[in-house]
Design goal:
single chain; about 300 residues; alpha/beta; Rossmann fold; 2 domains; six-stranded mixed beta sheet; four-stranded antiparallel beta sheet; globular; disordered C terminus; binds adenosine-5'-triphosphate; nucleotide-binding; ATP binding; Branched-chain amino acid transport system ATP-binding protein; ATP hydrolysis activity; transport
Length: about 300
């Protein structure tokens, strides 16, 4: 991916200084329903999902990313606890995919850290990130179109000991039995929903502790999304920390316990889904003009 070339080619961890740049950013507004907060500030509501067990979180702290010479993430803090679905919402261009690509090792941050279960993954290459238990399903389910479904799944097991791959593939297909009869088909001939299932299954082959799903519902029929929602809930119930990235809030509020809103590279809201369901107007502040795009 040519994005790697946009970043410095060092593998050293970037500086950890990721405080907000302006005094205006310090004007955090805590509300009873959730916390509107400035970039780089830790949550102030005392209900951080990792409270008491930080080693079980995937933690992004003070993450800054530049693409094409322009800053697109300005010091993002976010936590994904194991066993739960966490949602990251934001309008087009907010920086959601950039965050996923950076956590997955496909983009290098200029500042900040990515730590999973206590392991510092900042700046590691994608295969090392995967080996550390973090799997990403990129936007637009990028399966290998010319390879069969079976080969796509086998390739996804490249980081595992060879003898463990068949069992890992079988376990992933068990999650999506729809794939069972499609194993010989070239992945490019699958429907959008089937490709999304294959992309999710590929991520599962690596036996992740954390799963980042970028735009689960993009371009999919509601009936397909309805099929995928309980699967993600079930994966979380099995102990995986799921980060669900969505432009629209309907699916996210159904699944996620905790929600972050990203606006132009900054986290502008952090709170529980319940708080947002009770007070949907909270999103207007966080989303600025983007709330009118929501189909929730
Ligand atoms: N390859 C690239 N080179 C340079 N800038 C990019 C590149 N990809 C994205 N950007 C810019 O980075 C910013 C964040 O984009 P990103 O794709 O992360 O947002 P997003 O929230 O995922 O949006 P969407 O929901 O539309 O996918 C945008 O300003 C975008 O124009």
């Amino acid at each position: 991916m040519d994005d790697m070339n946009e970043e410095p080619q060092t593998t050293a961890s970037p500086p950890r200084d990721a405080r907000p740049e302006t005094a205006a950013n310090n004007a955090a507004q805590s509300t009873e329903q959730g916390t509107a907060r400035p970039t780089g500030q830790p949550a102030e509501d005392g209900a951080a999902p990792s409270a008491g067990q930080p080693a079980e979180d995937l933690r992004v702290e003070g993450l800054k990313v530049t693409r094409g010479g322009r800053a697109v993430l300005h010091g993002v803090d976010l936590a994904v606890p194991r066993g739960k679905v966490t949602a990251l919402l934001g309008a087009n261009g907010a920086g959601k995919s950039s965050l996923v690509l950076t956590v997955a090792g496909l983009l290098r941050p200029t500042a900040g850290t990515v730590v999973a279960g206590g392991d510092d993954l900042t700046g590691l290459r994608p295969e090392r990130v995967r080996a550390a238990g973090v799997a990403a399903v990129p936007e637009g389910h990028r399966v290998l179109a010319d390879l069969s479904v079976a080969d796509n799944l086998r390739v996804a097991g490249a980081g595992l000991p060879k003898r463990e791959v068949p069992a890992a593939v079988a376990a992933a297909v068990e999650v999506f039995p729809e794939l069972h009869d499609l194993t010989d088909r070239p992945a490019g001939t699958l429907s959008g929903g089937q490709q999304q299932m294959l992309a999710l299954a590929q991520a599962l082959v690596a036996r992740p502790r954390y799963l980042l799903v970028d735009e689960l519902s993009l371009g999919l029929a509601p009936v397909v999304v309805a099929r995928l929602v309980p699967v993600l809930a079930d994966l979380a119930a099995r102990g995986i920390g799921v980060l669900l990235i969505e432009q629209f809030m309907g699916v996210a509020l159904k699944l996620a316990e905790r929600v972050y809103v990203l606006d132009r590279g900054r986290i502008t809201y952090e709170g529980t889904s319940q708080q947002l369901r009770d007070s949907p107007d909270l999103l207007h502040t966080a989303y600025l003009g983007a709330a009118s795009n929501s189909n929730a």
